[in-house]
Amino acid sequence: MPVRVSMSDDPFSALLAPPPDEMPAERAARLREEENAKRISDAIDEEISRQRAEQRRERCVKRLTMSGCTGKSTTLKNFQLMNSRKAFRAERAQWRTVIQLNIVRSFRLILEAMAEAQAATTSPATSSPSVSPRLRPADDPDPDPNMPHLTSELLLLKMKLSPLIQIEETLLRALDPEGSSVFGAPYLTALTNLPNPERPRGKGVKEIAVNSCAWGTKFSRLLSGEARNSTDVRDEGLEPDEPSHVLHACSDDMIRLWKDPIVREVLDRLKLRLEEMPGFFLDDLERVTDLNYMPSDADIVRARIKTLGVTEYRFTVKGGLYCISPFVPRSLTSNAVGNSISRDWRLYDVGGQRSCTAAWVPFFDDMDAIIFLAPISCFDQVLEEDPSVNRLEDSVLLWKSIVSNPVLARTNIILFLNKCDIMRRKLAAGIKLSKYIVSYGDRPNDFESTSTYLRRKFAQIHKDHSVQKREFYAHFTSVVDIEATTKILADVQDSILRANLRGTGLIL
Ligand SMILES: Nc1nc2c(ncn2[C@@H]2O[C@H](COP(=O)(O)OP(=O)(O)OP(=O)(O)O)[C@@H](O)[C@H]2O)c(=O)[nH]1
Ligand SMILES: [Mg+2]
């Protein structure tokens, strides 16, 4: 039973109480001393809260990054384009919606950055009530004193673009009418090598995720030919819907805002590099907001929607040898007639978040090949799930656990060192690999040296940890580059097929 102690029972109050016979001079001295002690105590409290705010700020920066996003689904899209181009294009209506959501998300970030700039340049006394507390986080202590002032024209543009936020719900519903599988997830931002940590931002901006069962089955039906024969698919136009009209109406204002030098400076000051974020379409606004906009293959490949769980895709490939996926199981059926080979393939696309990796396990024991994507450009980012872990380091650990898995001892593992285009841009911008991978030391910070070094590291792990000897296959990729990726995938599928045919006695 807890014991309640009244003030009069408190032994400290008796000890600290002034003496009953205190003289006025003694009392004045005591009060001065107490006042002095209080000043020191307040200063200490102030320092403690300053340090706490600093720590909070660092934590927020890390929390804003996320895992996954290595390029698995993008690789799969390339594969779909190689195998089932017409059928894939028939899904353009959904991709248009995803691209529209990507645009809305980019603008949410811009509007949020503007609100932050507005708050930073407005004194608390005159602070506008329109600045929402969500956009101006309470734990964001020090506004940047050099933040540029937003002109009244910019503030007007900001207001005129508010309908964009309202169409987000409609777009989400269009992707998943039941609303069960598409939902938001924290947005990604990169850590930089700049001395000051970034402020928390993007907290309210959600990334769209899709559960494999909803969106994925559409694709698997399509690939398996259940949905419709690919030759029946016509390049018909898409009817403009409500979000398309809103985006079209906002188009000029969006372009003006995105091109505005003050807005760019605000984004720079907040280290918000939208161009490096997934689903970036702001340089194509005029085209993608056209009422008759039809996503191109390149647009579809660049569109970003996060995968949850595992999605299986089944299809038959006749004659051609275009097949590859993150996961291809061994249970392929095959029949060879002359030079023409017809095979049933199963591909698996997996959600990359750590919480999703358990879902992979049941798919592990029957694989012919695994394509492992390591996003080498992520060397300066941390995991959303665990901000103490560097993303590239996490990828290396996953690589080690896959190559050392006895169940996969005979599986071909093909490494894609991906996002080389972003890696090149980061290195050119002066971001140093050695700052994040200390073992890199003072080697040159160019693409050739850094990528070769990383490839060697992955190869060493493959050699040291494979249960039995096997070939090391690795490619430097930028899987948003369709042409280059098609060539690599054709090569890869060829080696998988050869290995598989060798196993079944079809090739010696
Ligand atoms: N610039 C560039 N962007 C890439 C590359 N690979 C993927 N992306 C983009 O990165 C984003 C994420 O790619 P996804 O293929 O969705 O990644 P994922 O591994 O499937 O991610 P999860 O589903 O979250 O596990 C997309 O917007 C892609 O367009 C690349 O090599 N270069
Ligand atoms: Mg994915």
Automatic annotation (TrEMBL):
Binding sites annotated in the UniProt record for Mg(2+): T307
Region (Disordered): 1-57, 120-148
Compositional bias of kind Basic and acidic residues: 24-57
A single GO BP: adenylate cyclase-modulating G protein-coupled receptor signaling pathway
Keywords: GTP-binding, Magnesium, Metal-binding, Nucleotide-binding, Transducer
Binding annotation for GTP: D349, V350, G351, G352, Q353, N418, K419, C420, D421
Matching InterPro entries: Gprotein_alpha_su, GproteinA_insert, P-loop_NTPase
Biased composition (Low complexity): 120-133
Pfam families: G-alpha
GO CC entries: cytoplasm; heterotrimeric G-protein complex
GO-annotated molecular function: G protein-coupled receptor binding; G-protein beta/gamma-subunit complex binding; GTP binding; GTPase activity; metal ion binding
Protein name, UniProt field: G-alpha-domain-containing protein
Species whose genome carries this gene: Gloeophyllum trabeum (strain ATCC 11539 / FP-39264 / Madison 617) (Brown rot fungus)
